Amino acid sequence: CVILDMQAACQDATVTQELLKEGFHRDLLVKVELGVVGEDARGCAVAARTRLPPGIYVDPYELASLQQHNLTKAVLIPDVIDVEAPEYLATDLLVLLYMEPDPRCSRCFRAVLPVHGRYHRPAEESEEALVVLKSPEVLVCCCDNRLSAECWKPAEVEAPCSGKNVGPCQWYSVTHKPAYKELILQVPVGLRQHSSLVCVVTLLATVLCSSLILAAVCKYGHFS
User: Fold this and answer.
1) Of 155 and 117, the one with more pLDDT
2) CA nearest 100: which of 145, 162, 46?
3) CB-based burial of residue 92 (10 Å sphere; 0-12 exposed, 13-18 middle, 19+ buried)?
4) What's the 3-state SS for 67-104?
5) Which residues have C-beta within 8 Å of that of residue 130, sequence separation ≥ 6?
6) How large is the average pLDDT for residues 119-148?
7) 94 near 57, Cβ under 8 Å?
8) b/e map of 165-182 (b: 16 or more CB within 10 Å)?
9) pLDDT category of residue 36 using cuts at 50, 70 and 90
10) Could you identify which of 18, 91, 138, 191 might form a hypothetical disulfide with 29, taking C-beta atoms 3.0 to 4.6 angstroms apart as the criterion?
11) Alpha-carbon span 151 to 148, nearest angstrom
12) Tell me: the pLDDT tens digits for 193-208?
């Protein structure tokens, strides 16, 4: 009975994800409620480690600007990202997102991460591609605290506790129950049967614009 009670207490952490805004440019809101295990993590750094699929990405330049203004703290792995690559040429992105305490809840933390949808191949029927975001892993870093071995296990994370370059620390992970196991982002895509029409319209627009530019140059240009 003691073992069952301990397991129940350790699994009391809850994670929720939500996509804000509409279109290709969204904000990923992550909320963590530590519950009973939060008693061990008082004064510790809390983070969510999530793996973003190739269908979405984080702009490192935008993230650097947000971090400069203390609006978001995150570590990207890899830190070099091709923001122009389409979905079928991109790779997964591992993100360590540092959480801030939620003033409305003593054991709650939250963070917002800007994410962007990538270009997808045209589809046969559906006008939307589905990008699935799995529930993140909850991590804490307590350099001066002793965590319960029953609830916390060491995690391999090469990142500082505070999000600043003060050297790596030992992180710990906790088992949790996601409110929703998966979060789905719907990305608009074109249809294959429209390819010919798009090519013709693009060609006509190019010829028309080139003709207007050439006519303007011939009419108003000064040739020696």
Assistant:
1) 117
2) 46
3) exposed
4) HHCCCCCEEEECCCCCCCCCHHHCCCEEEEEECEECCC
5) 184, 185, 186, 187
6) 78
7) no
8) eeeeeebbbbebebeeee
9) low
10) 18
11) 6
12) 666 777 878 888 898 8
Question: Any idea which residue has 């750094």 for tokens?
Answer: 45
Hey, what are 143's tokens? 């350099």
Contact of 173 with 153, CB cutoff 8 Å: yes
Burial of 40 from C-beta contacts in 10 A (0-12 / 13-18 / 19+): buried
**3-state DSSP percent of the chain in helix, strand and coil, to 5:** 25, 35, 40
Amino acid letter, residue 24: F
Cα torsion at 30, 31, 36, 41 (round to 10°)?
Answer: 60
pTM above the 0.70 mark?
A: yes
Query: Within 13 Å, how many C-alpha atoms sit on residue 136's CB side?
Result: 30
Strand partners, 108: 33
Confidence of residue 70 (pLDDT cuts 50, 70, 90): confident
CA nearest to 82, candidates 111, 112, 116: 116
Contacts of 71 (CB under 8 A, 6+ apart): none
Q: How far is CA 143 from CA 38, 125, 170, 203, in A?
A: 16, 53, 7, 62
Amino acid at 191: L
Percent of the chain with pLDDT over 70: 75
